[in-house]
Design goal:
Elements: E1 10-17, H1 21-25, E2 33-40, E3 43-47, E4 50-54, E5 59-62, E6 68-71, E7 79-86, H2 91-97, E8 102-103, H3 108-123, H4 132-185, H5 192-199, H6 203-214, H7 218-236, H8 241-247
Antiparallel strand pairs: 1-7, 2-5, 2-7, 3-4, 3-6, 5-8
């Protein structure tokens, strides 16, 4: 999919924009894609019966022909870098990978870098230069790719975190089942093979996970359980040492 993003986007306009109240009160659509980088203020974007909230440092991407309304507080500063663009060959793929119309770079450093790209694009443009239009497209291309990369890495990190959490939860469940089984069957000659079969896992996996998660081996835990039970029985005083030893 990444190959389709190799083409330079076509930049139709770019600048700093102070929004007219018309865009706040009326639904409208642009023939091209819209890019917003929020410099000051907060935006509530109403689109497709949903509301997306964006603040300073956030990027907003609105697909072409998408009816929307840009709601902001007219009593507060609201200023954005705004671009109108098309991206031949990439727009369908862009729609598929966008997690939201509002993209939030996770770190302050990444948001600062996006702002730098916008400022470079805005300040360094020379209308008399034959190369500046192409250079502007190249800078905007880099800007879009950087934002997509940043958001993609954040999503991957979140998925990885959820996967690790799920794995941890499974291991904790397994440890709980092992301890419960031993506490209910400590009087029997419990083997690693018996435990593994009862829990539906391999002996190697069971032994490795239990050691890593609990800090001691299965035989050690079995011994500790029996000793604790013996102490409890002796404390109750109803049985002598021989009887307790036989029971545990």
């Amino acid at each position: 999919m990444q190959e389709c993003f190799a083409n330079l986007p076509k930049l139709h306009s770019f600048g700093v924009r102070l929004f007219d109240l018309f865009w706040r009160t009326h639904y409208h659509a642009n023939a091209s894609w819209e890019f917003h980088f929020i410099r000051h203020g907060h935006l509530s974007l109403e689109c497709n019966a949903r509301t997306y909230v964006a603040g300073p440092g956030d990027v907003v991407l609105i697909p072409a022909q998408t009816r929307h309304r840009d709601k902001f507080d007219p009593r507060q500063d609201f200023e954005v870098f705004m671009a109108s663009f098309t991206w031949p060959g990439a727009e369908q793929a862009l729609l598929q990978i966008l997690p939201s119309l509002v993209l939030r770079c996770p770190s302050e450093g990444e948001r600062f870098r996006v702002r730098q790209y916008c400022e470079q694009l805005y300040l360094d443009s020379d209308p008399d230069s034959a190369f500046d239009p192409l250079l502007g497209r190249s800078i905007f291309h880099t800007l879009l790719l950087f934002v997509l990369k940043s958001v993609s890495e954040e999503q991957r990190s979140a998925r990885s975190g959820r996967s690790l959490a799920a794995t941890k939860k499974k291991k904790q469940w397994l440890i709980g089942e092992v301890k419960s089984y031993i506490q209910h069957n400590y009087q029997s000659q419990i083997s690693l093979d018996e435990l593994a079969q009862a829990l539906g896992v391999s002996q190697y996996y069971l032994s490795r996970v239990f050691n890593a998660e609990s800090g001691f081996s299965l035989p050690e835990f079995l011994t500790m359980t029996r000793m604790q039970k013996a102490k409890t029985l002796l404390k109750e005083g109803q049985k002598n040492i021989s009887e307790v030893a036989y029971e545990v």
